[in-house]
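#help-structures
NK: newbie question, is this the right format to request a structure? protein is S-formylglutathione hydrolase
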Amino acid sequence: MTFPLFDGGDCVDNNNKSYFRSRSPYRCTAFINYFINFPQLSRSPVLFEVFSVFQRQGLACTPMTAISLISSTKCFGGLQKIYSHQSKELACEMKFAVFLPAAAEDRRLPVLYWLSGLTCNETNFIQKAGAQRYAAEHNLIVVCPDTSPRNVNLPGEDDSWDFGSGAGFYVDATQEPWSKHYRMFSYVTQELIELINGNFPTVANKMSIAGHSMGGHGALICALKNPGLYKSVSAFAPISNPTRCPWGEKAFGGYLGVDSKEEWKSWDASELVAGYNGPPLELYLDQGSEDSFLKDGQLLPQNLVDACRAAQVPCVLNMREGYDHSYFYVASFIGEHIAYHARHLQ
């Protein structure tokens, strides 16, 4: 009886003379997942003993969720992959990108989650930011989900670029018809984490989060609303005070209700810092001085800095002279951010 694993290894049981061809944590995790998903394996006492050893060594035992490989490309010695899966949280098919450094072949690694901005999907960051080089240097897995549910056939989902498709705002919608599918906060902070830990060689309790623009807002609220879940958080040009900017007012009004402005505050980093009660957490912010959205009042980073100061939450704002909102700007400083997260993930 042969059970193929993700990376080409095999777990073989021939008349109870069982062996496992690799001690790679990646393959061991895969083996455990197969054991859970195929109860008939328990008929082999040798396999059961191997399973027990892996459990005692603390290897992942998360039941595997089916994922489908879309593409795999070698990059800086590792592999840049894109997968799809059926999301229970969002009730639709979702895609995500994952960069696996070469070190993931033989050991478990920390994870950096990246949340992209308005109009983006799972590919923008991996194609434009140049992050793989730094992730490879620091041995970090990098995961990039899409920015919203897709093709769920809701009225108005594709009518504008700043609401609906590509603009999930990383909240859990409460208003119809959005509430069934637009639950990006729960997707990112629960389902996606379980999916990644169950299918890849991660250190389950070592993860950080970062993002850009709408994704910067998402990274900040994910960290602030889940004290201790992430070891660090950083944001490029985040929508720092969405309850007070046009983008946020439109999104929150649609997803949360125009008459629910008190509820809006629970999805706004500048409001959340006042009630933060968890392990020490520094907000590491980046902002280009020539960002047109900064000048238009969409980003409001100073409001967040002031709120952090009042709440005595550590905050760093790096103002980058002459830089705009684009991925040219993100690519210029992504190395600093990845090094920042790597220090916290050691």
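mod (FA): yep, format's fine, and the tokens are attached above. The longest strand covers residues 202-212.
NK: thank you!
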